[in-house]
Amino acid sequence: MNESTPAALAQSPAPRRSQKAPGNGEPCPASGPGPTIARRFVDLLRGQGVLAVLLTVVITASFVYPTFATLDNARGVTVQASFLAVVALGMTLVVISGGIDLSVGSVFALGGVLAAWASQGGFLPALLVPLVVCGAIGLLNGLLIARASMPPFIVTLATLLAARGILLALTDEGATTPLVPKGSAFAELGQGSVWGFGHPVLIALVLFGAGGLLLQRTSFGQSLFAVGGSSDAAALMGLPVARTKLLVYTLSGLLAGLAGALNAARLSSGVTIVGVGMELDAISAVVIGGTLLVGGAGSISGTLWGVLLLAVIQNLINQIGSLNSSYQSVVSGGFLIVVVVAQRWLARGRRTG
Questions:
Q1: DSSP string, 249-289
Q2: Which residues pair with 197 in a beta bridge?
Q3: Which end of the chain has fewer surrounding CB within 10 Å, N or C?
Q4: Which has the closest alpha carbon to 208: 293, 303, 310, 77?
Q5: CA distance 78 to 85
Q6: What is the pLDDT of residues 78-120, one digit of tens each?
Q7: Phi, psi of 44 (to 5 degrees)
Q8: Which are the contacts of 189, defined by CB distance < 8 A and separation ≥ 6?
């Protein structure tokens, strides 16, 4: 018999504390409270850091410039930011998927021209024509990237040039500017307001709310994060990788076209020179908001704070008055570099932690 006697038990060596398994009352050193708190703090910084910067800038500017902290100024800032916000919303989904969309600036301008041109036929054509055409451009991007496995940079650069070419062809090289009928329902969409805030602002907020629900509460959003993290691993899990990429590029084109239509309604014309460099502003807002360019991580709310931060910086430059508007690009670029470096440091700290 192999029974343990009291003497044998007394002679057996006591177990060492360092070998105790987790769950027996003492956690292992690797799973202690320190790393868990550190990870939570890193996640908090990554998710809310841009909001803290935005609040700091707004509070400081309110004390320095009395005209900044006025309701009229807030209305102007939010309306100007709403068009970029709608474009950046689509860019957020694309970047989370691990891609990039350089065509949104040209698609934005094309959507405005098409909306102004179609507004002669009424409200519905003014909205549907740019959505259909710009959505088709986004669909083309998705097909070439998802189905033909072409690089997103090359594909969207080509559609950037193509959309700008279509725009110039429709406007006789920019010599013709289509106008929106004054007092029309479509013009009211861009120039009207509710509680003092313009319709574009409310539309942008609704879209961001829907985007947040799509990203966090649906299987499509979970698939999007998985595809951005590793498309090969997502495919092995049985996720629809190609369909997911196809949808995000189509949504990006639709949102860029919608933003262009809203801008045309507000300006009462399809201005041909808008949208130049807008893709870089959208990418800046997305990255400043905490979305990683490598894909697999990001948030809708972070993009909203990033857009507002860029809009506030531009407004502050206008408040100063003595500075040239080109300083906006300098400051925005500086913020982008700082945030990207901080993101890499936080991500490295999280992996080593």
A1: HHHHHHHHHHHHHHHHHHHTB--SSTTTTHHHHHHHHHHHT
A2: 194
A3: N
A4: 303
A5: 10
A6: 998 999 999 999 999 999 999 999 999 999 999 999 999 999 8
A7: -65, -45
A8: 123, 199, 262, 265
